[in-house]
Design a protein that fits this description.
With 321 residues, the chain is α+β, with helices and mostly antiparallel strands. The chain has 9 helices and 8 strands. The protein folds into 2 domains: 3-170, no CATH class; 184-316, no CATH class. 50% of the residues lie in helices and 12% in strands. A hairpin with a 5-residue loop joins strand 6 and strand 7. Helix 1 (3-19) packs parallel to helix 6 and helix 4 (77-100) packs antiparallel against helix 5 (108-129). The longest helix has 37 residues, at 134-170. The chain is elongated and about 90 Å long. The relative contact order is 0.11.
Length: 321
């Protein structure tokens, strides 16, 4: 085996490690945006959105260099060292770009992990590029490979964190404000419902004003607006098929009238719910419509009927298994 052939061994490891950069970044790409709708608040350019955009730019510059380096063919140790020095510059520039970004405080852990990993990788690149023999180069490459794996993980974690924050921020948010309700009383340090029918009426009005077109399976901002209207209410929320407990609400998910088919004007979305006050009195209501379930209907259940969203849906004629 020639001396040049021996030098290729560490290079193969290095090239394969460099190629990992192509999949490490970019997870901070924004996902599909929600359609604009009433009662939705979306800042034009928030701090998180700006940070995400700048991080994506740094990602692209870094990935471009690493992609180019992964395609190089080196036949001498000098070629390999040159590749490492260029990779070191790419990491240094990436680090510098991240330091300039005004990151949200909630991403501090991920940012610090990124900076620690980049500093360690730069040190390993420096050590490897300073060797003078093939054996020393090969020995140093093991530490570089380990440091690169840690850096790759830190890059991915930071991108994922910023992406998640941006996605959460981009979701529609209700503009419903807190209301004053005379049927809410204080007892034992808790806010309780004293009139189920009055509560039901408010929930229908609030829901109809705040319902938006949203992906199936969510509440279309209805439940979010209910919570915003009475934020301190000591209410227990239970599933559609569960009987509402005293001071509780049964049913909080929007369904299509025919769950086997996609929602449409002929198969509208609806949210059927039942509420029970502290005395055990029940009242029901339905919000229905397409694309937003924003038409309110009062539903009165017969005495002895289970106080649940499912029973309300049956009484209203929308229940379909």
């Amino acid at each position: 085996m020639t001396s040049n052939q021996k030098l290729l061994t560490p290079l193969i490891t290095l090239a394969s490690v460099l190629a990992l950069a192509l999949t490490a970044c970019g997870s901070s790409e924004p996902k599909s945006k929600q359609a604009d709708a009433k009662s939705v608040s979306k800042p034009a350019a928030s701090a998180v959105a700006t940070a995400q955009k700048q991080l994506m730019s740094a990602d692209r510059a870094y990935n471009k260099t690493m992609s180019e380096l992964s395609q190089r063919t080196e036949t001498t140790m000098a070629d390999q060292i040159d590749t490492i020095r260029q990779a070191r510059t790419a990491v240094f520039d990436y680090d510098a770009a991240v330091r300039k970004i005004k990151m949200p405080e909630t991403a501090t852990t991920e940012v610090n992990a990124f900076l620690t990993a980049s500093a360690d990788l730069i040190a390993k690149y420096d050590a490897q590029s300073a060797v003078t023999t093939a054996d020393a180069f090969k020995s140093a490459n093991a530490a570089t490979t380990t440091a690169y794996a840690a850096f790759t993980e830190a890059v991915s974690s930071l991108s994922d964190k910023i992406g998640a924050l941006a996605e959460e921020e981009s979701k529609p948010k209700t503009q419903q404000v807190e209301i004053q309700a005379d049927y809410v009383i204080e007892e034992g340090g808790k806010q309780l419902i004293d009139d189920a029918a009055a509560w039901r009426d408010d929930l229908l009005e609030i829901g109809s004003k705040n319902a938006v077109d949203e992906v199936a399976g969510g509440s279309h901002l209805i439940v979010e607006s209910w919570r915003a209207a009475l934020p301190n209410l000591s209410v227990q929320l239970v599933g559609y098929g569960v009987v509402a407990p005293p001071n509780g609400l049964s049913g909080h998910t929007v369904l299509a009238v025919d769950p086997k088919e996609s929602p449409s004007s002929k198969n509208p979305n609806y949210l059927a719910f039942a509420v029970k006050d502290r005395h055990g009195v029940c009242a029901g209501g339905v919000l229905i419509g397409y694309p937003a379930p924003d038409k309110a209907e009062k539903v009165e259940l017969a005495e002895g009927t289970a106080c649940s969203g499912e029973e309300v849906a049956k009484k209203a004629g929308y229940f379909n298994e």
